[in-house]
Design goal:
It is built from 17 helices and no strands. The model has no long low-confidence stretch (mean pLDDT about 95). The chain has helices at about 1-15, 20-35, 40-55, 60-75, 80-95, 100-115, 120-135, 140-155, 160-175, 180-195, 200-215, 220-235, 240-255, 260-275, 280-295, 300-315, 320-330.
Length: about 350
């Protein structure tokens, strides 16, 4: 009973986005489950720890815990837990830059969920797959899958899944330059997250709304939204989302001509991306710093950064970021080529 109590307290903390507390409680439960030789309990702890470390942007630890969970699930022939661990591994691998392996793992999980007739699991795996195609740069496929996930979550009356699907559509629409649609999706998600009291979701949708306003040229309101997201992410302890928000703030300052403020934000976010081993974030920051250098008259060093970013994006298969970096290289040869505004 004591062990289960620690686990339930940890679940409550994680659901409230109190990740540090949740991790401590899960570890207490894990030690007791091990002492009791409770293998299913140990398995549940590893999956929960993986979910929590992933939520706070510590993807290396998440991969380690999901791998432990997958090994145990395979030993127990627990197909449901195997699928859960595989989706977690896929999402974590995607964040570390390996979207190819991520798709393989998520596809495997999807087959397991379908075999179990687990409709919640199927909806989640479709949502995870959609985000992976978004990272790959296949926006049409991403939108189609996010719409499929939305329909599935609606059928299940899963409000959280519906809201996160709207966020996925918001991000994909922005990259497709459909900025009004993007803002509409994020506003719908934000209203839902308020009702759900989902702090992470609120931060996520605030950042999305900020980027939608940024793409409309409404920099004042963009910063207001970003600041709301920044404060929530800092309280939650999600370093990766916090870093992307800093990058967004830096980009907004760059568009306003506040180059020193932009550079400060790019450097801060770059350090977080270095710590969390997020290659896509690193590419964003290299591009941002390069743009600031170009606008400051340092064209040679700026072009070097654009070229470096293009090479890294090519290595990881980030098609949109590669296209943007090559566009900067081409634009830098013209007198009025910059700034551009990465969606």
């Amino acid at each position: 009973m004591l062990t289960e109590g620690f686990f339930q307290q940890a679940e409550q903390s994680r659901n409230a986005a109190e990740y540090k507390s949740a991790i401590g409680l899960y570890k207490k439960a894990l030690r007791l489950f091990r002492k009791e030789s409770d293998i299913p309990g140990i398995l549940n702890c590893f999956i929960a720890l993986g979910d929590t470390f992933r939520a706070k942007g510590d993807f290396t630890k998440a991969v380690s815990d999901y791998t432990e969970a997958l090994n145990l699930a395979e030993a127990l022939d627990d197909m449901s837990s195997m699928a859960d661990a595989l989706v977690g591994l896929g999402l974590s691998s995607r964040a570390l830059g390996d979207w190819r392996d991520a798709l393989l793992m998520i596809d495997r999980a999807d087959r397991l969920y379908r075999g179990l007739d687990d409709r919640q699991g199927e909806a989640f795996s479709v949502w995870a797959k959609a985000g992976t195609y978004r990272i790959k740069g296949d926006i049409k496929k991403a939108v189609k899958l996010f719409q499929s996930a939305l329909e599935r979550f609606r059928a299940l009356k899963n409000r959280s899944g519906i809201a996160y699907s709207y966020c996925g559509l918001g991000g994909s629409s922005r990259v497709a330059c459909m900025f009004r649609d993007s803002e509409k999706y994020y506003k719908t998600a934000n209203r839902m997250f308020r009702k759900l009291d989902d702090r992470f979701g609120l931060a996520y949708s605030f950042c999305g709304l900020g980027n939608a306003r940024r793409m409309h040229g409404d920099y004042k309101n963009a910063i207001l939204y970003f600041n709301k997201a920044e404060n929530l992410y800092e309280k939650i302890g999600d370093r990766v989302s916090y870093a992307y928000t800093l990058w967004s703030i830096g980009t907004t300052f760059k568009m306003q001509g506040a180059l020193l403020k932009a550079l400060e934000n790019f450097k801060q976010s770059a350090e977080f991306f270095r710590q969390t081993k997020d290659p896509r974030g690193r590419i964003y920051c290299i591009l941002g710093v390069g743009e600031v250098e170009y606008l400051s008259g340092k064209r040679k060093t700026a072009k070097t950064k654009f070229s470096k970013a293009a090479g890294l994006a090519d290595d990881y298969g980030f098609n949109l970021e590669k296209k943007y970096a090559l566009g900067l290289l081409k634009a830098s040869g013209r007198a009025k080529g910059l700034p551009l505004n990465l969606p």
